Amino acid sequence: MPFAKRTVEPQRLCRSASPPALTEDLRALSNAALSRTVRQLSDVARHADSLFHELERELASTDRRLRDLREKVRRVERSTGELDHRQEAVRE
Fold it and tell me: Which positions ≥6 away from 86 have C-beta within 8 Å?
């Protein structure tokens, strides 16, 4: 079972207790909701940025390993190309 590296949970935007005077002012309420929404979006963007950086590192590592493997295959091909099948003993 994989371990969770990041946990993203939604937050309540407008469910905080506020004084009655503030609940009557819809502008204040909508501004608070919008600012909290923007804050949540910035958190999601930060998580996405972290995910993409980690993915980039993993892909670079995989690319490096594949290049090393290709080089090993080329060396084996060169060395087997130099062998003469008529001179080498083959077990039966």
Answer: none
